[in-house]
């Protein structure tokens, strides 16, 4: 396998570990970028990007980053808090009056950011095309009753997060959510990151497909079982209502829309660059960064049915939980995306890490491929 790109010789072992990923015949394409102290020490890519495995992954290949997008969205909301356009502990209804319906008048931005609002899913079945209709989805969420008492416990809002926070951002900033997020995060840092991709960029988007035959860890199997056997449960609805959520990744309308929970497109460089921008204070003031990375939710996740730990729109490390550790220091924070892509920062080691793949693994939180790369990285630091 031809691995392209650059690496500092001190990190040769990481390059070898990245190359070894492609020993698995199912592995299609991937990219890895690591910055230490703001310097890029690894910028590698390899494999194939297209559906038929004929087109090489290039330096400018981008992919759907799924939930890695969430932290970009959270940082945008927190910038609006810094500017006084939103407030963490003000009721959402101050900005979005319709949201008061069905007992939601006390829900705050902090609740939304930390998955404590009780709105990870819609009960009423939505038609497939609703996924692409912003107003339809935000109206449905404004009318929805919480699944539990807001503020008491947490449940991951896999996709509703994008409409809930995106609508607040839209109302506070006056721009569409994708435009706001890109202008506030990607543009100042020069990142190749998009929420709402232009058609003329489609040619460089990697085709995403699932790996076959791997069942994942215990938590992945638990969630899959729930989705097979409990069609109306909150966990199932969170991922399958609208039913198009799971099947749209490679569609043009998915790439075009601005769904800031799950459809950011970018590369490993954009993830590492974003987390480096957080570490060196380019995106948030230190007080707000402390708020982002402070524990807000921990324990059994009502949606994912596994133990999760969140700050405000980022996942926090759980060193003792195999499927929930980034694999470096206990203060690490970031976000995995469905199927294996991940971005995170370790403030103690001044490391910013981005890994992107178009071969979806079946894991719910951290993917073992990225964890292995991080373990090797730890030996080089």
TrEMBL record:
Gene3D superfamilies: DD-peptidase/beta-lactamase superfamily (3.40.710.10). Residues 17-371 form the Beta-lactamase-related domain. The keyword Acetylation does not apply. It comes from the Bacteria. Keywords: Hydrolase. The keyword Protein biosynthesis does not apply. GO terms for molecular function: hydrolase activity. This is Beta-lactamase. It comes from Pseudomonas lundensis.
